[in-house]
Amino acid sequence: MRAFSEVAKLNATEWYFFSFRDRKYATGYRTNRATTSGYWKATGKDRTVFDPITAEVVGMRKTLVFYRNRAPNGIKTGWIMHEFRLETPHMPPKIQHYV
């Protein structure tokens, strides 16, 4: 398998990844952002993402900061992540919706 730096790097300071959202609880809506070395904490409020041509709302952006160790005693780092999600009309249909 190729290294992440070969497949996800845009430039020296920006990398892009796609992943499925991990739920903290099987029946809940909270997202699990814990890692083996720390956790990602959301900061501020979600921001709207607009289509540059139609000005239509296409999604939302959440800003997260990485903290080392475990909450509530985490140590803030300089790592920032922007999490993007599509709004409902733009979501691809779920597999169970196929006939």
Automatic annotation (TrEMBL):
Molecular functions per Gene Ontology: DNA binding
An example Gene Ontology biological process: regulation of DNA-templated transcription
InterPro entries named in the record: NAC-dom, NAC_dom_sf
Keyword Transcription regulation: yes
One Pfam family recorded for the sequence: NAM
Signal sequence interval, chain numbering: none
Keyword Calcium: no
Domain NAC, residue spans: 1-99
Keywords in alphabetical order: DNA-binding, Nucleus, Transcription, Transcription regulation
Cited PANTHER family: NAC TRANSCRIPTION FACTOR, PROTEIN CUP-SHAPED COTYLEDON 2-RELATED
Name recorded for this polypeptide: NAC domain-containing protein
Organism placement in taxonomy: Eukaryota, Viridiplantae, Streptophyta, Embryophyta, Tracheophyta
